[in-house]
Specification:
This protein has about 475 residues and is α/β, with parallel strands linked by helices. It has helices spanning about 20-35, 55-70, 75-85, 100-105, 125-130, 150-165, 180-190, 220-225, 230-245, 255-270, 280, 295-300, 400-405, 415-425, 435-455, 470-475, and strands at about 10-15, 45-50, 85-90, 110-115, 140-145, 170-175, 205-215, 280-290, 310-315, 325-335, 340-345, 365-370, 375-385, 395-400, 455-460.
Amino acid sequence: MYSKRSKIHPFDMVIFGGTGDLSRRKLLPALYEMFASGFIPEGSCIIGVGRHDLSNENYKEIVHRSLEHGEKIKDQTTLHSFLNLLIYARLDMESVDNWNSLKQLLSSDRVRLFYMALSSTLFDVLCTRLANNGMVNEHTRLVVEKPIGKDLFSAQKLNQHIHSVFDESQIFRIDHYLGKETVQNLMALRFANSLFEPLWNSRYIDHVQITVAETIGVEGRGGYYDKTGALRDMMQNHLLQLLCLTTMEPPFTFEADPVRDEKLKILHSLEPIFLHNAADITVRGQYTGGQHNPASYKDDVSNTESETESYVALRTHINNWRWSGTPFYLRTGKGLANRISEIAVAFKHLPHSIFTPAAGRIRSNQLVIRVQPDESIVLHIMIKDPKRKGMGLLNVPLDMTFAETLKGHLLSDAYERLLLDVIRNDQTLFMRHDEVEAAWKWIDPIIAAWEETGQPLHLYTRGSQGPNDALRMISRGGDRFWREL
């Protein structure tokens, strides 16, 4: 599952929000898988911190049930050994009391990880408490979940506060999309092959579509989501990160700062969306009840007056030498027809066809990188249709589906890979503070334009392809359509 590049020594990991949803569904199962694969050595300590009055045994039972629910348990011996690594610490994180009890659980001479698996409103106070109680040293690493701020000002303020305690080299701003196997394969596809790089520019590529679609609604996140919306929740981080990896220049080496330097250049090169063009190249949507689920977005967030978008689509350009003139279409939404995350690169049409119309329509080549589900890389090409006696053309996929091609090799979960990188002190797949701020600097004017113009909220039926206005927006660019979800 992983390459054992370096020996991992026992470490301490503190999860603030250790009983929360993220910990139970993602972090603790990922840590269990890492332990079962030999990447967490015996003697390590995993401390779940929460406000609930639980004993160590109570906490282990909660983790046990989470692993059972996720069907993660391999054998009872491995499970028992993993649970023995766990300790529960009750702590009111806003209080100044009981921090010394947590400090006494930590070893002084080993790597220690603090994972902020809770609301970003607590990040600043937690950093202050850690510093004031002498819990930060040269071996300390801090893992920060999104959202990092709600706009440029709050992101800068939060980064400044974190930097008052931690050096940038100690901070791991996590975006779990960057830990997905196919996202990393995008780097290998581009920079480990000579085939695509000469074509990877505006001369040969007509447009690019990046889609992150979900079938679920806001589920139990209504209170948070209704104050946030799709633009802040998904576009500012996940989709912009996918855009950066798709379009960045080759770094001189695959290491943290060279990679992040190239991503930052893309964010700085994005064509601004302001008051004068937002209505033409952005679409806001909100789902209504559908045939299989009658609950609308307003029902899900218990707010009949909500004007928050559950869907956003937009068009942008990258103003640099490589990409000048190539449009990039980004869309994300909840309550859609299928759960799909993909990057679709559409190459330009042939300048001239030698075939008669009777041969059939020649479609442009497409390279589709499917991030989830069914991770795959598919190249659509034209061939002769073997079912026709004369010259007939057929569009077919050259399909490299990971589950088929890599039989017997399990794909690691994104959190497993990223947590392993934190332990190894590898920041390549994590965001730097200037990346976060550059993304907000581009997003903020869109939000301001929507508020000033009262950009309409287009309704779409739950389980559909999204609002019709998104189709009209992409079709303004000529013979272009959204890929079907």
